[in-house]
Amino acid sequence: MTDDRAPSAPAADGFPPAPGSHDPEALRRRALDALLTARARTATLTDSVEDGELTAQHSPLMSPLVWDLAHIGNQEEQWLLRAVGGRQALRPEIDGLYDAFEHPRSARPSLPLLAPAEARTYASDVRGRALDILEAAPLHEGGRPLERAGFAFGMIAQHEQQHDETMLITHQLRSRPAALTAPAPPDPTDAGSLPGEVLVPAGPFTMGTSAEPWALDNERPAHRREVAAFHLDTSPVTCGAYQRFMADGGYTDPRWWAPEGWDMVREHGLTAPLFWHRDAGQWLRRRFGVTEPVPEDEPVLHVSWYEADAYARWAGRRLPTESEWEKAARHDPATGRSLRYPWGDTDPTPEHANLGQRHLRPARAGAYPAGRAPSGAGQLIGDVWEWTSSDFLPYPGFVAFPYREYSDVFFGPGHKVLRGGSFAVDQVACRGTFRNWDLPVRRQIFSGFRTARDA
């Protein structure tokens, strides 16, 4: 997931709009709740460690936590205070320090960053002014694109939650004892009776959206896609299934690997998912500062696209395309409609999906029966980001909004699409149309996968 994603201009189509999307006061309440929820999570992630850990770089793959904290405030200042509110800049001199395109993550510790106390004060000062602007902003349908339907406020809430996920990745990369705790997710109730795969029949469906008010530019516009019949795993691939691939020489047989993936395996000596190690004949993993046995019935986590692709080849299957994934997740054959979420058009609840850092791990395969799609597939939202076989490309009719660097500059064969979100994703930044993308070598992200085959 990239550092800075800002989004897309709303327009109407036949896809049912989000609840309250035509009611300015309901949108105002929704935006306020999203902003407050994101800030509470940011506080949890940054207040749980000492200042020295906020300024340290725990991995060259990630920024110091204090950079993310001030960057969140700076993006909010630029978009809500300046662009929407027309306010005078508070700290224009720091814009360059917190420009993700100007400074790679590995170089950020050497920058003259705001200290933790100053970063907190700055983010809080910006937030107070932003809430004043939200209280007075016109959110009606005919307003300016950034204000219409509260788009800019939803964009900033999503941006903060995306950085909260990034900071949670940094917490996973810490070598210190656990700083975060959470209860275990619910156990599945009928996992033993679920089929291994579901059949998604051939036919067209509506992909993407033009009506979801806070959808980002790469999710737009809604368009028809024809998809051939295919079979899809009912649940994400589990750690136990992945261990069978490992035990069968999966990491030592080049037949299963794309050439670049095989080069990665040899260069880095890969033998298992990131954070796994073997001890006394047992696979263990490190999870947020705690070492524990790898649970066999939990979706596998921290695997790259190359590892997911190699497993699928070994299993005689393949990764689903992005279109296949979205059809399985959203298409309702009874009505011909595409749903906002697998279970329908209502926002997620704790009974639907593992989201929002409520749990610091995926739920066991087969959990969340209330969240299953009409196709029969489950856990399509939450738990683990799911790699697809697709490159990150624009939809027909794509228009960059509000700036090119959000999505447009990432389109092409260099990035692969992930779908569905993970336990680290908040509901404001996760829906049936939401598209994530990353380099196929990435392993520190909360990524897993499921497989498909032609019908």
In short:
The chain is of the alpha+beta class and 455 residues long. It is built from nine helices and 14 strands.
Protein architecture, described:
- This protein is an alpha+beta fold.
- It folds into 2 domains: 24-173, Four Helix Bundle (Hemerythrin (Met), subunit A) (Up-down Bundle); 192-238 and 313-454, Alpha-Beta Complex (paralog of FGE (formylglycine-generating enzyme)).
- It has 9 helices and 14 strands.
- Strands 12-11-10-13 form a 4-stranded mixed sheet.
- A hairpin with a 2-residue loop joins strand 5 and strand 6.
- The two termini are 32 Å apart.
- Residues 2-15 have low confidence and may be disordered.
Number of strands: 14
What spatial order of strands do you see in the largest sheet? Answer: 12-11-10-13
CATH topology assignment of the largest domain: paralog of FGE (formylglycine-generating enzyme)
The CATH H-level superfamily of the largest domain is paralog of FGE (formylglycine-generating enzyme)
Task: Give the SSE string.
Answer: HHHHHEEEEHHEEEHHEEEEEEE
CATH architectural designation of the largest domain: Alpha-Beta Complex
Distance from first to last alpha carbon: 32 Å
Report Rg.
21 Å
Arithmetic mean pLDDT = 94
Low-confidence runs (pLDDT<50, min 5 residues)? 2-15
Characterize the largest beta sheet: strand count, sense, and whether it forms a barrel.
4 strands, mixed
Helix content: 25-40%
Query: What gross morphology would you assign?
Result: globular
The domain tally reads 2
Question: What is the overall number of helices?
Answer: 9
Beta fraction: 5-15%
Helix-and-strand structural type: alpha+beta
Using the coordinates above, name the CATH class of the largest domain: Alpha Beta
